[in-house]
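User: Could you walk me through two proteins back to back? I'd like the raw sequence and the structure tokens for each, with a short line separating them so I can tell where one ends and the next begins.

Assistant: Of course. Protein one, sequence then structure:
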Amino acid sequence: MAGLAAITLLSPGTPLDELWVLNPIAYKRLAPLGRTVGILFLLLGAALATAGIGWFRRRLWGWMLAVTIIAIQVVGMSLTVSEATFCAGESVSLSPARCCCFSCNRGSEAALSRISFEEIQKGHNQ
């Protein structure tokens, strides 16, 4: 989704612009910032892809990057909610992000990806 947002913000006028019908409030806020936000979305997409690759390859750095990205999102959403200026849908996505961050930090990351703690340590040493 970050990649699609980046494409539509960096190259307005493509058929992909119609996807903004799903979240017109976000488009109204992001469109004036265009290129700057588009580049940031590209960086976000790259970070998410990197975290996903590391996670699925069962590397500790991938897990750490994924948890860091989720934690940053939780903090950002918490600040937004505490200011009571959240957009439609943000309050809904806050709970799943917190649950995911909590479960990853409880040590259940091994259970979620069906690998042992020893395998995680081995991946960290590579």
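----
Protein two, same layout:
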Amino acid sequence: MEIKLLRLGLKNFKGIKEFDFEPNGQSATIYGRNGAGKSTVADSLNWLLFDKNQAGDKAFSVKTLDEAGLELHNLEHEVEAVLEIEMSKDLFTGVMLRKLLVEKWTKKRGSQSLEFTGHETTYYIDDVPKKKQEFDAYVSGLVREDLFRMLTGITHFNAMKWQDRRRLLLEVAGDVTDASVIDAHGDKFTELPGIMCGRTFDDTMKMFKAQRPKINDELDKIPSRIDEAQRSKPGDAACLPPQGIPAYDELTAKLRNLQNGRAAMQAGDTSHIQAEINTKQSEISRLATEHRGKVMDAEDRRRKLTQEVALITPKVTELEFSIKAKESENVRLGEAVTAGRIDYQALAARKKEGRTCCPTCEQELPADNSRAAELRHKIEGNLDKAIADNIATGKANKAKIEENLRVMAGAQEEIQRLEHVRDSKQAEADSVTIPEGPDMAKLNAELEEIKAKLNSQSTPDTAKIDEEIEIVRSQIKQHDDAAANNKVAANIEVRVKELKADQKRLGQEIDELDRKLMLCEDFIRAKVKMLEGSVSAKFAPLSFKLFDEQINGGLAETCETLVPSPAGAMVPWSDANTGARILAGLKIIEVLGIHYGITAPVFVDNAESLTSRYPEIDSQIISLVAVDEGDYDGLRVVVREISTTF
């Protein structure tokens, strides 16, 4: 659709008392001093259609101001436009749109003077009064406001949010699929589909980025765990057999002899008491040693189970990601099957009708014409091939859905198995308890009670032999402590080896994850290059920066217009001069107009900045040119061709 401005009339609109502009659908130039009202002409058309100025502001006044900056009252503010609209090829229609704004003054009861009570706006289409709703509906039926502003304002596209600009560019140029990027780079990205496992690329990146900190966190904890274990390991000296004292067997034999000798000194009835004492002391020593061993075994068991539980959780997370990806893919495939079934029904209906029409004029082909027979045979062959392709595609999609369901079921079974194993191991870890030690207070009290029996007897002096016994016991304890330390050290060595094996495994996992992430980032860069190339090809000689390279090597979405400079460099829109922006804006309007199939009058403000020819575009161009103060009084219009040079 082509919209051209035939005439535009202003009356008491902002600073213009009356101005009649008749380009008759031609491109034209409006000359005037700064502040003479050139931009007001552009504002007037936007106000007429959308109640806004050219910048899109609704809160602006159309009233005329006096020299003191105060509004002049009791004026009619009017804009009238005659548009020519090409509804289809060689079918044109004209329409006159008019909007009138007046002040309402009312005399209240008991007052002799009129008071301002608001404004009243009336709307006309071809001089027929309309309600605002009817007027707006007619305008929006011609063209949407946002689209009109994009196709008539040089700077509008680059004033949009970058997200909206980016979305619009991808809509015009078409997105680049992951499959096309993989195919375009040979073997470089062939393993990506296997890495993605049916997930979308974004989901794959999210999964990898979620896994990496978890693995890295586990990896960071291992050195401190190794250090903690090694610091708790008894020193080598503490694990060596005591030096300078007899062997363990020799000491235990000596202790028995000393105890027997002491018992002999006690004589008669006290020998059985001494035997009780020896038995109780041996029991206390044995129970204490056994308890230390049980505590170490329980702690080691709980630690191993907790580690095994922690290793299962990432596997469950990865399987859940895989299931969600397959579900999303099945939804998409199901929609494709439904659409294919509709296409098949249409193709089958055509096959059943058996009609073979000319593809150009859609008339039935004659039966007695050899060329028509050949064309009929070709049309029937194409129809059969389309039906066969449709059936093959439908079967492939259904097979893929069934395969995904099997994969999802297997993944779900694996999740249940892993969760069962994890819960079992967690329950087992929770059930591990540190055994309580023997009641030493009770045992020692029993020992003292037995010893008291001896004290109640008349006993000989056993101080010397008692001293010897204590020395031997002390030496035996040194052997016991060394043996216990050896056991602790051995358990810690096993634990350190396990931690180092985990460290190596996790390091390999994170290296592989980093390799996959790097491959994905290289893929993104390759896709960015193809995407930017596709977009730039549509808008040449302009190009667009769609991604920013971040400090960490990642990419962030953006959208920045790059304008060619005379030296050949691509300059950001924000740094380009006014003339370059005008040319860039016209190119953007040209491409968008082709995409949407609509052209409309383009107002080019500050057109005096342009020193080169206008590009050849289909839109009507209204140039607004500022001239020196003494050249013109008011506005001067020159209807011109689009290729006119300043």
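The chain has 15 helices and 13 strands.

Let me know if you want the two compared in more detail.
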